[in-house]
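The following block was generated as part of the benchmark described in Methods. Ligand: guanosine-5'-monophosphate.
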Amino acid sequence: MEKEFQQLTELIQQNTSFVLTTHVNPDGDGIGSVLTMYRILKAHGKEVSIINISETPHYLRFLDKSNVIERFDLQIHPEKFASCDVFIALDFNTVDRMGKMSPVFASVKGKKICIDHHQNPQPVFDLYVCSIEYCATGHILYDYISKSKIVPFANEHAEPLYAAVMTDTGSFRFERTTPDVHRLAARCLEQGVNPTEMYRQIYDQNPFGKMTLLGHALSATELYGDNGEIAVMTVTQQQLADTGMREDDTDGFINICMSVGSVKMGVKFLELKQGFKISLRSKGEIPVHTFAAKYGGGGHKNAAGIRFKEGTMFERKKEIIESAIEFYKGVNHE
Ligand code: 5GP
Ligand code: MN
């Protein structure tokens, strides 16, 4: 990544105005990464806007104490995309992940940078600071700060980066949790991050309705496969309405299914206001992102997703479950 880091530094030095964004329905890595990049650029006196299509989920708002993240507004923001010197996409690598904001991408006349750790980036950017070796986009940014010395590593970077890495590694347990990731965490603690407080802010602020919703989702979960290897969970709009919860309140539900010993692959169907979304999880060598790609989705080997803009979940569910069973059988399980 040294060459890419060098090119990124040059683009920062040579330009004045920057627009940063992360993906639709942002997670800790998306929010932590845009905030870190914002603070790096601000330290260099740049004009910076963070413009996201979705609002910041309530459990991550504590990271943005100064409220610098803006939500995309068709009246005011397209002009900023068109006129900025540099546009930086963080924690996603295909334009469609910008959701309803995607059309503005084509209007960007400045340099387009992608900083990300997902598979198969779309060939539309001018610079890729990307590698799937990293556990999180925040990890790439940490490496960038450490190696380029673009800013001294301080608490204002440690907080969002710890949140990014903690959430994307499932609290330091997913596959890419390397010694380097723990060294990053240690450096964040040295900069004043309190791990207990960070965990409490992100995971222990749920409304009671979320427990009720999780209860419904878990009790309706079904196992498929010869020995219960595939867990299928479903969340409907009706359940969301009954419990007063939102679609993003179901983030992470599918991970709980993975705690069942027999389960090797988890599939969550989430009915959206329009269309539906599938979240996929797996253990070991089951590349669920290739299954997701079959339906136009993507992600990582052990965590992927698909968004269906058309059609209803109930029409498609049976066929997709059958297809998932076939996919699972076709994987080499050695
Ligand atoms: P989640 O199920 O937690 O929403 O997403 C799991 C992973 O799959 C994330 O790393 C995310 O980037 C990826 N992902 C989720 N939905 C989509 C999608 O609609 N398209 C693509 N390309 N990736 C997705
Ligand atoms: Mn990420």
